[in-house]
Structures are given as structure tokens and as C-alpha cells.
Amino acid sequence: MTEPIVNDLTIQAATVNGSGSQTANLVLTRAIFHMGIPVAPKNVFPSNIEGLPTWYQLRITPEGHMARSDKVDILIAFNVATWREDLKSVRPGGVVIHEEAFSTADVRTDVTYYPVPFSKLAKSKIQNDTLRKQLANMIYVGVVAGLLGIPWGAVEHGVKRQFLAKPKAVPVNLDAIKLGYDYWQDNFSKQDPYRLEPMTGAVEGKVLVEGNQAAALGALMGGVTVVAWYPITPSSSLCEYLIAYSDRFRLDEKTSEKNISVVQAEDELAAVGMAIGAGWAGARAMTSTSGPGISLMAEFSGLAYYAEVPVVIFDIQRIGPSTGLPTRTSQADIGFVYTLSHGDTKHLVLLPGTVEECYEFARDAFDHADRFQTPVFILSDLDLGMNLWMTPEFKYPDKKFDRGKVLSKQDLEKLAGEWGRYRDVDGDGVTYRTLPGTDHPAAGYFTRGSGHDEQARYTEGADAYARNMDRLAHKLETARHALPAPVVEESGSPIGLIAFGSTHSAVIEAREMLAAAGKKVDYLRVRALPLADEVARFVARHERVYVIEQNRDGQLYDLVRLALPAELVERVRSIRHYNGQPIPAIAITGPLMDREAVPA
Amino acid sequence: MSATVNRVGLPRDAYKGAATTLCAGCGHNSITNHMIKALYELGVEPHLLAKMSGIGCSSKTPAYFVETAHGFNGVHGRMPALTTGAHLANRQLIMLGVSGDGDTASIGLGQFMHMIRRNVDCTYIIEDNGTYGLTKGQFSATADLGSVQKKGAVNTFQPIDPCAVALALGCSFVARSFSGDGKQVVPLIKAAIAHRGTAILDIISPCVTFNDHDGSTKSYSWVKDHEESIADVSFIPFFEEVHVDWT
Ligand SMILES: Cc1ncc(C[n+]2csc(CCOP(=O)(O)OP(=O)(O)O)c2C)c(N)n1
Ligand code: SF4
Q1: Which of A25, A61, A98, A314 meets the CB 3.0–4.6 Å disulfide criterion with A288?
Q2: A-B interface: how many C-beta pairs under 8 angstroms?
Q3: Burial class (CB in 10 A: 0-12, 13-18, 19+), A598
């Protein structure tokens, strides 16, 4: 037998969706995490409720790599429809745990097979008829635990943690896992190198959180009081988490009534319209959607930009165009969202690259929206939003809300009613607003998406229009400096990488791989649009800069080049990944090494 | 000389808005005047009023009454969403939406229906002229079967009757009137505002420029010939007693 491989392996469970396998996978994940070992789960699921193939990849590395792995060490072949295909993904020397009934004799000889009679075990040993199908998945958790040496205590923890809200389910699930655990002990002897051993120092202080869950918490911390949404994968869970959290944390102390409004709208036009109406009336309001919904929100987004109404809009990106691959990840909305709507529209866009940033940016987005009286988009994606990520625990906010320039009754009295809704008195492009309900005769004004002057009066005047548009541009320029700055990691390499969003995890790993191969590369992570000046400076400091992103056309690549002086443009190159699977590090290192090998 | 004031101490002029930019004789202008009268007589506090609208000649009218109130002229057919959101943000506001028949029954039918379904507390006025005034005279979805466009085209489709739709959805306040009948419209507006829940007022409001000819079923003459007042409407406002807790 070869050298043992400890805590460095990727498990892939190939199952059928709707069968309860996701619960089994999460138990396994939590058990391993409980051993102090870093985990990075990725769920690849179909746009379907029951019966289609689904894969769950659980990557385990001592370093805590969180990008998808392109190699499978241990395959759990549980799906009769796909197992032959799935077998191809296993690396030579890997392990296949499979349903005994699948005949593997003619398939591959360079892997170790552990056949388990899952169906027979389930039929003969699981008494509970209604839960049999679901519990059958738990059997493989037991087999894996036996195979890798996961202590029973960790398994118990995984089950209890997974069924926090349903403690009654713990014993039946543990029994099912025990079936697999015992089957392993009784029938196999270890023939492969893979082991898990408890670790210290790698996961302490960390939690497993989905990006959408983090964003929901962030929005609550940001003081959201009106949420309007329309269900769509992969965004739905954000609002569902929000509803669940607000059931617990947004109850009025005296009346126990909820002090947040959540509306499931009739479509995304209505959802964003409600959020804008609420933002106009003074609430912190948001909506969340994905590609098809963003398309529907275009007209209203332009209204909010032009009439200057704060609103927060989440786009949890998935693959388009059209319905595309609704359950696969993508970063292809960045160009569209940045200028969403007709006319000279441009938006503030926040680009979280970690779940911690999903939390922080969601929280701070409401400040930005209020401060700059404009829509703030938060661009996440399916990978970041719906997968569990290891993250440091979130911090409780330590600053007060910034509600921006709002004139109260008292302010208006001091000004003797002299103010103009769109008058730039501070020279930063950001004007003062009043909220409906302000008890002063000068408070009211007419908000409109048609041409208006400084006093919010209707005008089609050429100068007034251009003046207003220039001020809006100036306002965005002010805002640009207040948005999260790029994160730069630099050590004097002639090569730089630029990326955003969930590509971050693959870039971290790619840089380690490149450094190990003697090729250090620098890195700038963009965290907001419009782009910061630092981007151009970064390009100026490097001979060759690769923009890495998960879309076909290199949308950030285009935006970066537009932000550069002409002489720097040709330094920038593009690496793109767009098959719907989260980008693995190799999709960066491969093309980069190829391009570097060719003289420029 | 002290001017006559209403119960909140404001003169009628306080309910005026900017000068109208609509065509002289447009039914919508009459409705604006009825609105001013109703809001004045009801004693609505301007700062608590939120005037909402979509897009169209009709949707411009909130600029022409109660200038000191907040207003929001949104996008075509989506006034209900803005209204719903603003209402959720501040339940104290008196939401008053103005829309057209195109704005409501064509592009905005979905939002119109869903607002009724949610029974959002607001007054929803449809200034119904059977045509798209602002885009120069195309048929709207409330144009009657067989009615004739100014240039001669005949409408071959059944109309959508916003009142029938509202009733089918269980709306708790539905009324139809005529812009030329202030005696009826003013109390209806007051009652609609006083109503808790969505109140739909479909007011036939002739477009003198594009839909006031023979063959139109929304012309002044057609409406006058066919108007049948089924009730003498008056409205006696109910003001809640003020309860004071002296402890
Ligand atoms: C999305 C969109 N499509 C089309 C238009 C053009 N448009 C402006 S007003 C209008 C029709 C208005 O008709 P109605 O609501 O009946 O109001 P009226 O002008 O007759 O009072 C149309 C189609 C628009 N503003 N927005
Ligand atoms: S076009 Fe018709 S609806 Fe528009 S203002 Fe003129 S008369 Fe009124």
C-alpha cells in the first residue's frame, strides 16, 4: 500500500435529487468539520425536485482550500443512472463506494472498489417505511466514516447539529449510519491510502455558512424593514433565511408583532417596485433575485437611479441567457447590472468574494444606498450563495446607520423652507431629500422619472437635463471612493491577477500552486463598481495582468480595459471559465502557464 | 379678512397644484378639480398625503393638486408596486394613486389585480378615456367592442372592465363615475379615501383630443347620453374619537 494520504481528499457523492441525500451529505460535512478539519462543500444539483442526478463534492484539505477540485478521490456511486459516467471522474488510485448491484468488473481497474448492498441493507434493516428512502443515504455516511476513520463521536455531533430543530430524528438517523459503519467494519479491510485525523488550529473560531444566509443576516444588521421578492433559484434562500431570522429577531418587544414587512410579490417588476416605493418613503428596503428577475427589474432600476431613490438589490447570479442552467453558477451579469436600464444609467455594485463579505456588504449596502440615494446592487452567485463556506464568525456591527442627507422638520425650519431636492449644496453631487410624512409645508416635492430641475420641477430644458446628468455622474464619482477598496496582495511579481466574487477561492489556490512552481503572481481583488483608481495603478505596476472571471466574454476584462489609459490596455489579458461549475484553480493555472510560455 | 379654512386650518388654495399642462377640456382636469375639492373638504393634511401614479396624461395629474404633498410619478403600469412599498414603509401615509386605463388595464393589469388581492390601503383612481392619450390615441384595453378610433379603425376586442375585474377579485370598494359629474365624484373620492383597504374608482374621463368623436364610447356626448346615475352619493366623514390616557 502506498503512503497514507491524510486530510487531503475530495469525496463526491453521486445521488438522486429529492431522495434525502443532501441531508446525508451535510451530516458527513459537519462530522468532518467537527474533527477540526477544513471542509469545502459544493452542491451540484439539477433544476428539478425529484429523480434527477445530483452531485455533492466535499473537498478536504489541511490548508482549507475552498475552490472546487477537479479530481475525485472517493466516489460514492449511489445513482444507477450515472455511475458509469461518474466513475470516470475518479483519479487513478482513488476509491469507489458503490451499490453492490452495479457490476464494476468491466469498468476501471485502477481504483479500489468497496461494494455495499445499500438497498438490501435498507430493506432488511430499516423498519421505518416512510423514511426508508431517505435513511438509505445515511448508510453511506456510515461506510465513509468507517473507511476514513471518522470517530463515532464526530458522527453523532454531525447528526445532532444537522437536526438541531428536529431532535427526534437523531436516533433513527444514527441507527442508519451505524448500519453502514458496522458493514464497513465487518466486511472490508482497508486497501486505500485515505485517512482523516483530527486537527487543531485550522477551523477554530470558524463556522459553516451559506452566502445567502450571511447576506440575510447582513441585511437584518443593516436595518432592512421592507423586503419584496419573487422566488427564483439561487436567490430564494436569501429571503427565506431573512424570513426565518426575522421571525426570531424582528419581533417588537412589547407587541411581539413583526417589525419588518416581507412581501412575496407577483413578479420581479413588482418586487423591485415595492422596494423602491418603500425606499422613497424612508424605509431600508431590498429585493433579491437572479438573472431572469434582474432583466425584469431594468426599467425600475433606471427610475431609482434617475429619481434618486435608495434601494438594495441582490443578484445571486446563475447561468443564462434566458433560463440557461438555473442551478449552475456564473458571473455573467456584471456588465448588465452595472448599467442596468436604458439611458445613461450606472450603478453602484458591490462584489463580495467571501461569505463574510456577503454579510458585511449586505449590511453596508443600506448605508451606501441611503448616503448616495441610488440603487446598490450586490452581485453574488450560486456558488457563493448556496454552498456552505468555512468562515470566521461574523462581527456585530460597531457603527451606527448612516441615513444620508435627510432633512427633518427642524432642518426645514432652520432653512426657512429654502431647499431644492436636486440642488447640490455640498458640491459632492449628493443632494438632500425629505421623507413623505415630514410635517413642514416645504417638505413635499414631486419625484419623477421625467426630466426635472434642481427644485424637482418638470422640465424638458436641455441645460437642466445635462446639468442633472453631470451631477449624477459626479455623485457616482463621490460614491466610488466610499465603496470597498480592492484588496491587493503584492510581492513585486511582473504578473498580476485580477478577479472578483467567488472566483477568489480559486485564485488563492492558483497563486499557491504557481508559487510552488516558482512563479509568484500578484493579485488584486475588485470589490465594487465603478472601479477604484487602484486598478489602473495595479496594472501600471505589472507587465502582464490576467483578469479571471466566470463568464464567456470577459466582462470585467472589458471594464478594466475601459478604465485604463491607452498605453496600459495591452498589458491586460483574459482568462474565462463558464461551464456552470465553480471555477477550479487549474482553470487559472493551466491557461496562465500556457500563455506565459508563449513570448508576448 | 380671514379666508375660509377646513378642519385642519387650511384654505382651499393649499390643495392646489402646479398649473395643468393637459389639453383644455380634458376630463382629467375636471377630476383634478374634484380631487382638490374632496381633499380640502375632507381636511386631509398635505404632509400625510402620498400621491402616486404611473405614466400617461392621467398619471401626470398628481402634480396638479396639493403641491405641498409628496408625489411619485413612477413607471408605466407599476403604480401599485410603488404604492404598496411606500405604504409598508409608513402606514401613516394616505396613499392616493392616479392611473389611466392603459396604465391600469393594459400594461398594469397584473399589478392592479395583485394590489386588490392584497387589499393595500389606498385609493386607486382610474382616469378612464378608453385610449392612450399621451401616445396619441391608440386603443386601450377598456375601449369598447366596436368603438371607433379617431382615424377610423374599429376595435374588435372585448373590453376589460376594471370594475368587473375588481369585483371579481373581491375588492371591498368599487365605483364608477364620470369626470363631468362632480356631485358624484367628490363624495366618491372622499369615501374612497376614508375606506380602509383598496378602493377602486373608475372615472370615465373623455380625451378631447383623441377620443371625443362620433363612434367613441368614451366621448362627452356618448357618456352624457348614456349616463345613468344609480345613486345620489353623499359622504359623511367619520372622525375617530380621540381617546386620551390621563394616567
Ligand atoms: C414601458 C412603457 N411602454 C410604453 C410607454 C409609452 N406610453 C406612455 S403613456 C402610454 C399610455 C397611457 O395611456 P393611459 O394610461 O390610458 O393614460 P392617458 O394618457 O390616456 O391618460 C404609453 C403607452 C411607456 N412610457 N413605458
Ligand atoms: S391627449 Fe387626451 S388624455 Fe391627454 S391631455 Fe389631451 S385630452 Fe387629456
Answers
A1: A314
A2: 152
A3: exposed
Helix (H, G, I), strand (E, B) or coil at A78: coil
Which residue has its alpha carbon closest to ligand 1 atom 3?
A: B76
The reply to whether B58 falls in a domain is yes
Give the DSSP letter of residue B55. Answer: S
> Residue B20: inside a domain, yes or no?
no
CA distance A530 to A79: 46
What CATH number is given to the structural domain containing B103?
A: 3.40.50.970
Q: Which run of H or of E encompasses B85?
A: helix B79-89
In A291-310, the residues whose Cβ lies within 8 Å of chain B are 299-300, 303, 307
Amino acid letter, residue A348: L
B57 within ligand 2 shell (Cβ under 6 A): yes
- Rounded to the nearest angstrom, the distance between the alpha carbon of B135 and the centre of ligand 1 is 6
Residue B109: give the domain boundaries.
34-238
B26 Cβ inside 6 Å of ligand 2? yes
Interfacial B residues in 103-142 facing A (CB < 8 Å)? 110-111, 114, 118
Measure the CA–CA gap between A66 and A389, rounded to whole angstroms: 7
Ligand 2, atom 1, lies closest to the CA of B133
Q: Chain B residues with CB inside 8 Å of A299's CB?
A: 75
Helix (H, G, I), strand (E, B) or coil at A306: helix
Nearest ligand (C-alpha, residue B79): 1
B14 found inside a domain: no
The number of C-alpha atoms within 13 Å of A151 and in the hemisphere containing its C-beta is 11
Question: Which residues in chain A (416-455) have CB-CB distances under 8 A to chain B?
Answer: 434-450
Cα A266 to its chain centre, rounded Å, is 25
Question: For chain B, how many structural domains are there in total?
Answer: 1
3-class SS string, A100-159:
CCCCCCCCCCCCEEEEECHHHHHHHHCCCCCCHHHHHHHHHHHHHHHHHCCCHHHHHHHH
Domains of chain A: 5-204 (3.40.920.10), 209-392 (3.40.50.970), 487-597 (3.40.50.920)
Each residue's pLDDT, cut to its tens digit, for chain A (600 residues) gives: 579 999 999 999 999 988 889 999 999 999 999 999 999 999 999 888 888 999 999 999 999 999 999 999 999 999 999 999 999 999 999 999 999 999 877 789 999 999 999 999 999 998 888 888 889 999 999 999 999 999 999 999 999 999 999 999 999 999 999 999 999 999 999 999 999 999 999 999 999 999 999 999 999 999 999 999 999 999 999 999 999 999 999 999 999 999 999 999 999 999 999 999 999 999 999 999 999 999 999 999 999 999 999 999 999 999 999 999 999 999 999 999 999 999 999 999 999 999 999 999 999 999 999 999 999 999 999 999 999 999 999 999 999 999 999 999 999 999 999 999 999 999 999 999 999 999 999 999 999 999 999 999 999 999 999 999 999 999 999 999 999 999 999 999 999 999 999 999 999 999 999 999 999 999 999 999 999 999 999 999 999 999 999 999 999 999 999 999 999 999 999 999 999 999 999 999 999 999 999 765
Answer whether B92 sits within 8 Å of A437, measured CB to CB.
yes
B198 within some domain: yes
CA of B134 to the centre of ligand 1 (A): 6
Q: Which residue of A has its CA nearest to B62?
A: A446
